[in-house]
What does this fold into?
Amino acid sequence: MDKVDEAIQTIKEHLCRGESKGKHLVVLDRGWIFVGNLTMLDDGNSYMLTDCANVRRWEKAGFGGLTQSKTESAAMLDKCRPIRFRASAMIFCVPLSEEW
It folds into this structure.
């Protein structure tokens, strides 16, 4: 198993199918960053992100600061419709606090 497959398997083990696991910051291939409620779909190979927004940019902190607060990092968010993406498109995800 290569590192990508191992990472996908780890994510699958931590996210139960069909259950929302709360708000996450999701980094997808090609540089896309989204925030929203992450759910693994029943097929086990794709995810749905609801109540989501694209993180267009942030100005006052590094990536770690972005994961701590959208306000303090001066994040610019663009609300969007729910998105569905394949598990292989996810680079990594970060669980966020409900206050984020």
